[in-house]
Design a protein that fits this description.
40% of the residues lie in helices and 22% in strands. It is an alpha+beta fold and 230 residues long. A 6-stranded antiparallel beta sheet has the order 1-2-3-10-5-8. It has a 4-stranded antiparallel beta sheet with strand order 4-9-6-7.
């Protein structure tokens, strides 16, 4: 008898695009275990800062909960003010965290690239709406699960929960330090600090994104970069 192999099951859902931009595209998503690149993706995810300490048993418990999704550039994964929240583990590409005021003026709070996370964990714990949006800067591949599932997993593993809580505190401290920097340092100082802390992102970020993060015009950023190359 001939055995017919079936292709891995991929699920398609409507991506959570910014609602002002029209109909969102179809988003390809698959459970990690069913993904055609599962072996490679497992290796990448085991290097993630929030997952690298998991034991083999803990990983076997978590893996069935993980979806892997591919997002286009400019996609909104979480909308500021939403109550539905998810935990993201970046496999490839760059995310940004953005906050906007009532007039629509935006401020980039942080970037997250490979082996990093983005999350609405603090808002979930506080039972408040997420106070920022999470968007893609480039095309992004990420593993994700609902915040309810992630929190329940952490509650079953107190040591992992303590380590994750510490990472969230570091993340929040990083955001606060960036906000203070915008007020205390001049344009040159802001760029120098970014290059010192995030040099690996400098060549990957679109100029307009980096300029926005540093609260500079693209022209000022280009001028400072030329000066630094001399």
């Amino acid at each position: 008898m001939t055995t017919v192999k079936t292709a891995p099951t991929l699920r398609y859902t409507r991506a959570t695009s910014d609602r002002t931009l029209g109909s969102p595209a179809l988003l390809e998503m698959a459970l990690l275990a069913n993904h055609p690149e599962a072996l490679h993706l497992r290796v990448e995810l085991r290097e993630n800062l929030a997952l690298k300490a998991l034991t083999a048993e803990q990983w076997r418990e978590l893996e069935p909960l993980l979806d892997v999704a591919d997002y286009p550039k400019g996609e909104t994964l979480e909308h500021q003010g939403d109550h539905s929240m998810e935990q993201y583990f970046v496999i490839e590409g760059i995310l940004k965290r953005v906050v906007a005021n009532a007039e629509g003026k935006e401020m980039i709070l942080r970037f997250a690239a490979e082996s990093d996370i983005d999350t609405s964990y603090a808002a979930w714990r506080l039972r408040t709406p997420i106070p920022y949006s999470i968007r893609t800067v480039t095309r992004v591949r990420a593993a994700k699960l609902s915040m309810q599932q992630w929190v329940a997993f952490l509650e079953r593993h107190p040591a992992l929960k303590s380590a994750f809580d510490l990472e969230i505190m570091k993340l929040m401290s990083e955001v606060m330090a960036h906000t203070i920097t915008l007020h205390l340092l001049d344009a040159s100082g802001r760029l120098q600090r970014f290059m010192r802390k995030h040099a690996e992102l400098a060549e990957r970020l679109p100029k307009k994104e980096l300029a926005s993060y540093l609260n500079l015009s693209p022209e000022t950023l280009s001028r400072l970069e030329r000066r630094n190359r001399r």
